[in-house]
Structure formats: C-alpha cells, structure tokens
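Subject: sequence -> structure tokens, single chain

Hey, anyone have a minute? Need the predicted structure for the following. Not urgent.
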Amino acid sequence: MSGVRLLVTSALLGGAFSPTLAQAETGPDTPTDSATSPNITVTGVRSVTRDKLAETIATAPQSIDVISHDLMEQQATSRLADALRNVPGITLNAGEGAARGDTVNLRGFSAFNDFFLDGIRDAAIYNRDSFNLDTIEVLEGPSAVVFGRGSTGGAINQVSKAPMLAPLWSGSVVGGTNSEIRGTADVNQPIGHDSAVRINVMGERSKVTDRDLVSNHRWGVAPSLGLGLSGADTLIVSYLHQEETDVPDVGIPFINGKPAQVPRNLDYGLASDRFRSVVNIGTGYYRHKFSSDLIFSDTLRYGDYTNFNRFNAPNFGYNDSPGAPTATTPLSTVRVGRDSPSSSDHRTNLTNQTDLTARFATGPLRHTLVFGTEFSREQDTSTRYVNPFGDPGETPATPLLNPDPYEVSPVEAARTRGVTTAYGSAAYLIDTIRIGDMIDVIGGIRYDRFAAHYRPSALIAGVSAGSLKPLDHVDHQWSPRASLVFKPSAHARIYASYGTSFDPSAEALSLSTRNVNLAPVTAKSYEFGAKFDWLDGKLLTTAAIFRTQINNAQITDPDHPTQIQLAGNQRVDGAEVGLTGRITAKWEITAGYTFLNGKTLYSTTPGATGSQLANTARNSANLWTEYEFDHGIELGVGGNYLDKRYGDYAEQATLPAYVIVNAMAAWTVNEHLLLRANVNNVFNKLAWVNSYYTSAEENHVIPAPGRTALFTAVVKFR
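Reply:
Had a minute. Here:
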C-alpha cells in the first residue's frame, strides 16, 4: 500500500511539473545539427549543448559524443549503460554496497554522480532504461560551469522524448535467446494546432546469457503534455515512472590478480539476492520567448527514488578462512565466502533552474549570453543492515568449482540509518562572443554553495557512539571556463579550451568523520582539438588532445591513518579521434578511438604512486556501421575494443583486453513494419566488462553476456 501511495503522490506532483522544453519536431524552433549527420537531430526535451552552450555539436569547443535514438534502435539497445559503449573512453564499474546501478568511469575518473536528465542532475541509484530517451549527450572534460559539482571526466545528459506536432503511433516487441521478452509503445497525438500529448511505455523480462541466475524484470511509463509548442509561451508537463526487480550479477572472484579460471555461468551469489528500485520523476517547464534574441525559461523538477539491495558477493575473508588463494592453490580446494553489505535508500531531489538567453551586439562583437541560477534540495535516507559475513552464523562458504546458489542466508536486521540533507545554490554566466566570421571567444563563470548535513541513528544496540556523530559541512566554489575557436572555413573549427571541476566531500551525499573537514577536490583540464565536416555537412570528423589533472586528491594521512588529507596527485593525458555521419546516402558510420595515459603521480596507498588509474584502459575503440541495400534490407556491424586495465590503483588485479563484435540485419517490409535481428558478442568472447577490487580477499569481476540473438518487430504509423 505504501508503494501505491508513493506512486499516486508522485503522479500528482508530476502533473504539476515537466522538463525543459524540447522544440517539437515539426515546429519552427526545431534545432538541426546537420554537421553531426542528417539523422542525428536533437529534438528531445533538452539538449545541454544547444540550451547552455549556445553551440552545435560540430562547433562546441570540447569533445561531445551524441548517441542518437536511431543508433540505439539499430543496436537493439535498452539500457543507458549499453548505449554508452558507443563512446570510447568510458568504462563500466561494478559497485559494492550502496554503489549499485549505473556507475562508469569517463576519461579515467568516476562519473557515478554525473548523470543528468534534460540538463538536471539525475543523482540516484538505479539502472536507467532507454525507452523514453531521444538522444544521449556525453560532454567530455570538466564542465562545472554548466553542471556544477562533479564532472571531472565529463557529464552524461539524457535527452527525453518530447511532445511534437506530428502524429506518431509506434510499438515494438523483442524476443531473445536470453529468454527476453520486451515490449514498448510510443504514441504522440497533436491536440489542436499547437499542442500535443505523448506517452511511452515499456515492460521487460529477461535473463543474461551464460549467467545462470541473473535476471531482470522492469516496466516504465512516461506521459508528457506540451502546450504552445511553437508559440511564444510554452508549457510542458511530464512524468517518468520506472520499476525494476532484478537478481543482480555479483560476478566471479579474482584469484592471484586475475579472474578465476572457471566457467562464466557459475554464480557466487544466492538465488534470493535482489536489487529493487522505484523511480518517480515529475518535471515542469515554462518558457517565454520575448523574441528570437531573448528567451526566458524556468524548470522545476521533483524526483523520488527508492532502492533495496540485498546480495551476497564473493569474498575470501570469511570466518576460519585460510586467506585468499594464490597461484599454487588448487582450485578444487578453494571455497568462496558470501559477503552481504546490504542496504536500502530513499532519495528525493527538488531542483529549480532558471535561464535567460540573450543575443545582442556590442559594436562589431556578437554575443550569445546565458545567465542562469539553480537551487536544489537533495535528501538521502540510507539504511545499512547487519552483515553476517565473518561471524559464526554467516552464509556457508561454497566451493569455487561448484557453487551452491540455494544456500539460505541469515536474516539481516537494519543496523544504522543516516539522513543526509544537502542544499545547493548556484549562479552562472556564459558568454559566446563572435568576432567576425572566423573567431569565437567563450568565457564562463559559476559560483556554487553546497551545504550538507548528516544525521545518523542506530537501529540496534551495540553500535559505536563514535559512528553516530552529526556532521555538517559547507563549500563555496568558483568554476571558470574559457575557450577560443578559430574557423578558417565554413567546414572547419580549431579550438583550445580550459575548464575546471570540483568534488565536495558530500558529493554523493556521503559525509564521515574522515572527510567532513576537507575542502573540495579540484581538477583542471586543457583541451586542444579540431572538427571538420565533409560532404555538405553529412560527415563529421573530430580530433582532440587533452590533459586533466587533480593536485589535491583524497588520500590517507600517513601520520594519522584514520584521517584523510588532500595531497594526492592524479593526471590523465589523452587523445581521441571520431567519425560520425554518412559516407554516402546509404552508408552510415559511428567510430571513435581514445588513448588515455592515466597515472597516480602521488598517493600514500602502497604501490599506487606511478601506477595506472584504476579501470582506465590506455586504448579503447568503438565502431558501428550500417548500410541500406535495395528492397528495404539493412546490414550493420560493429563492436568494441578495450585494452588491458587494472581493477585497483596498485595494479594488483588485471582485466585482459578484449574485442566484442556485434551484427544486425533488418528488413523494412513496408512503411509500417520493420523486422530486425541482432546478434551481440557474435564470437562468444569471454570478456570482463565490470570490476570491483579492494583487496585479494574482497573483489569480483563481471563477465560480458555470451552470444545473444535478439529479434525485433517494429510497427509504426505516422
């Protein structure tokens, strides 16, 4: 009943609010980023590049990757994490405890809290589905002037589908060899000449090939209403609801610094493990267009997120354990313990953004000025449960070569609860100055105040009083940005850019006695690049070199091991190239390569100084190319390459390099029906895609799904 009340309450809130405007596909304000490809037109709710930077993808002075709805459809992508494999320089993480859901590294740095939905922070623990996404924008490099805290390696903005002035009735059904059955529907109906209503729905049941216990059950609905889509006054209201109940993948343990040499179908968790999440997001947007040169907008969003995470992960530190196995330990004698750091969270985010965009001239200089403010209240109520691991009553250890997933796990009582409330306020100004037709100068500054208050409580007797101390911390931070763009021709842009980022101690609403008195971790980034479009803007090529450096990373104080100090030094030097668009009218391509030389220059962690940053591959590449033949036949092929990387900062755990190849064939039967077949991991490669490593005892690594075929039927009426 409480879940029903939560759903009804959030629905009522959703009826009052909605995301920042996306121009209708058929309206006069529709943005067309033709330099990115005629098929990649950001028509969703809110493109950060368009609305905040006043630039197109092709002219913005930083590396930006856009994953289009068409590309996600071609690849039969249903998860944000899977779509992000189209961006080299991104690696996936496997979390532990509260760090579940989507968690990635971007350009060598964690982006766990750098997900945005239509320009507003989407800070929560859940696995994001793509059913209501129009495009995904990945802005690489520090972007605090736009996003505020976090964003050291970049930021990921999901652009939602929006009401439009053209009718659309579309549905799809997917069946797969992974026991998948998935259905979606997308219905858009104009109301009168200037308004529309749109609804997207999704339901799915699936398993993971070669991971026997892992399963996914989810559903979602996303209605939206747009009024005055092409007029001077626009109002859009929308609501997103998504639920999932999964048996999570806890992976396979490392042995002697490498994934254990066991069949990848073995499960070391329990069949009773669960990850549940419920997401409710209501957003409201009002825009007034004084003229084409002066636009005011205000966005108000309320998000309510709950999750429960009970799982048993492999760990060799169990009661009476002989310790972590070594290279000479016979695998037949190895037993694996079940570590259960279970948790539940309830998070609410209330955010208001106000923007004023003005275009004007001062003499020969033409300005696009964006001034904005942001106010937020975020609250996280986190409950931690008694972990029986290491106690006499723990879940019995299981044989490495024949794990039993049907052991009965002890009852876990709630141990502690912590409530963190954070208040954020910010103001920012970004000015794009055009000097003639060849030079753009872009400058920006942002001020953030971020105050966090932590209030813990014990739920059982015996909890140390020292861990229940209330904590408070306030940060004040200025974030500058500067760029210079030189345009030697209408098809070429050469740029140099400087940006910053900061990560406060309570970045993810987590304060402790170890970090409460620390200033933010700050980063600086320098990028030099070039963008060229070809074939009348149908094909875009990009190249960039960059450096991001942190000179005050959090490290353990060598003189006081229970404390943290800001003295670490990390640096990533990198380069990347990209190719996006159409080579011919029938041949489309998306490709990229990134080189990352990520190093820990100084740390007190033994073995970390001089080592490669954790979960950072020196070389990574992606490719997807699709060709349209006669008679409605399309063929596509592509894949991902990821170099060797380490699961930890001391290079104790190694994940080998891999190449995964995917393929697609589609037939457009007629204007209303399309049939598609996708085969992922065509060569059934054993690849390790996510990892978690704190020691030789506590770790796990998650394999990629085995060869999986998906069959899709799409019905569409316009």
